[in-house]
Design brief:
Elements: H1 7-16, E1 28-35, E2 45-52, E3 58-63, E4 72-83, E5 85-90, H2 100-106, H3 109-125, E6 128-133, H4 138-149, E7 157-160, E8 166-167, H5 179-185, E9 190-191, H6 194-207, E10 212-215, H7 234-246, E11 251-255, H8 258-267, E12 271-274, H9 280-289, E13 292-294, H10 297-309, H11 315-338, E14 341-342, H12 358-365, H13 370-376, H14 379-384, E15 402-405, E16 419-424, E17 427-430
Parallel strand pairs: 1-4, 5-6, 6-7, 8-9, 10-11, 11-12, 12-13, 13-14
Antiparallel strand pairs: 1-2, 2-3, 4-15, 15-16, 16-17
Length: 433
């Protein structure tokens, strides 16, 4: 059960808390009018009952609208029910805005954790019951991950990388301030040379990282005109991947430029975030290695819109944003045609929290059917994050992560922007509407 909170977090929870949560030891039965239990098959079932055990797992799915003595029944007979969604790329503890530069020098890790609690609630209420947070201060994101897991704060299941591993002065390190301020704010994940980068990976795993995030190329939001191509050397990339894999952690690489994408794939990374400038060699390497592409089209569209509006971004950021947004749209079309494995991810925190489902629109524009797009955010994202058997399906033994909408998302993904019911790990966070 979700524990009683105090102070500001109590007020935050009360916004999301339903009138009646399942009591300890109570079985819950969801009556689903239409059900997409396994997005891998795309089969939509009608009139099904989802049995949720008191431990927050799916006990079974039965035909018809069944009841059990003493069970709580949730009526979703006029709703479309599907597994909770998975976003493979978020930043819960921050959000891009006009105070971005001052925030770097005025906010503490405690500030970030409290903002992250608010954003976690917003995210899960939007139907995203699992996220991978790939870039945040260790103290803030690991504390938030623990609080959600213990039921102290409402939010999605969180896998967290903590600090990204970045080249000294590269994307993910600090830039744009005086040398003294840059030195004071230097990222603990910054490194130069293979040995130092191995050490940085091991330190992150020691601190509690579920996966390792690296910045293989420059980035749009780096406040420096350093481009978006390869920044780590090939030797450094190999050292990072070897160190992470030796300790059982997957490596996901922020990468825009084709040279950096290809170098990261050759080094053995497990996924590429963004992948804006993929070329023929990139597509060949994706297929050869089985690595995932996490396209984050929403982030590209968001920064492009900001650049064109003349808001928020610095001149160095805006110049890169105008080009990368367009490239991301083309990259996902190329990836789909080439049969690259894709997992849903948004880079939310660049865009506003709670709008994650807007990414579905761009995936459909890129050639995916609505059902295929949903699969990217369920079974495929679960495979990418090594959560198969836990998340992405409504099946016996899986976590009871269940959402519902009013329309049919297999015909119109836009209805996923209007969530009507959310259950995360067996707890109802958004009552049926």
């Amino acid at each position: 059960m979700i524990r009683t909170l105090t102070g500001a977090l109590a007020a935050l929870w009360l916004v999301a808390a339903p009138a009646a949560l399942a009591q300890d030891g109570e079985t819950t039965i969801i009556h689903a009018g239409r059900l997409l239990a396994d997005p891998a098959t795309g089969q939509v079932l009608t009139e099904r009952s989802i049995l949720v055990s008191p431990d927050g797992r799916i006990a079974g799915v039965e035909a018809g609208f069944v009841t059990r003595d003493g069970a709580r029944v949730i009526d979703l007979r006029d709703r479309f029910v599907l597994p909770g969604l998975i976003d493979s790329h978020v930043h819960l503890t921050s959000e891009l805005g006009p105070n971005q530069i001052m925030d770097e020098v005025t906010l503490t890790a405690s500030d970030a954790a409290l903002r992250g609690a608010e954003n976690a609630r917003i995210t899960v209420m939007a139907g995203f019951t699992t996220v991978a947070d790939v870039g945040a201060a260790n103290d803030a994101i690991f504390a938030l991950r623990r609080a959600v897991a213990e039921g102290r704060v409402p939010g999605p299941r969180i896998l967290a990388s903590g600090y990204g591993i970045t080249p000294d002065g590269g994307h993910g390190d600090v830039a744009g301030f005086s040398p003294a301020v840059n030195d004071a704010l230097r990222s603990p994940g910054a490194c130069s040379g293979a040995d130092a980068c191995r050490r940085a990976v091991r330190r992150q795993i020691q601190a509690g990282a579920d996966l390792i995030k690296i910045t293989a190329t420059g980035g749009v939001l780096s406040n420096t005109a350093a481009g978006v191509e390869q920044q780590f050397s090939d030797e450094e990339l190999r050292a990072i991947v070897d160190a992470a894999h030796a300790m059982g952690r997957r490596v996901t690489a922020h990468a825009h430029g084709a040279g950096g994408i290809n170098a990261a794939l050759r080094a053995g990374v497990d996924s590429i975030e963004h992948g804006s400038y993929t070329d023929a060699e990139s597509l060949r390497l994706f297929r050869a290695t089985g690595a995932y592409l996490v396209p984050t089209i929403l982030a590209g569209v968001t920064v492009e819109e900001m650049a064109n509006a003349g808001e928020v971004l610095t001149p160095a950021q805006a110049d890169k944003a105008r080009e990368v947004g367009t490239r991301m749209r083309q990259s996902i079309r190329n990836a789909r045609r080439a049969g690259v494995r894709v997992a849903f991810g948004t880079d939310t925190g660049v865009s506003r929290h709670g709008l994650n489902a807007r990414e579905f629109e761009f995936l459909v524009e890129g050639g995916f059917t609505p059902t295929e797009a949903i699969r990217l955010a369920t079974v495929d994202a679960a495979d990418h994050l090594q959560l198969t058997g836990t998340a992405g399906r409504i099946a016996p033994g899986y976590s009871a992560d269940v959402i519902a909408v009013a329309g049919d998302p297999t015909a119109d993904v836009g209805v996923l922007m209007d969530m009507r019911f959310v259950m995360a790990r067996g707890e109802v966070l958004r009552d049926p509407q």
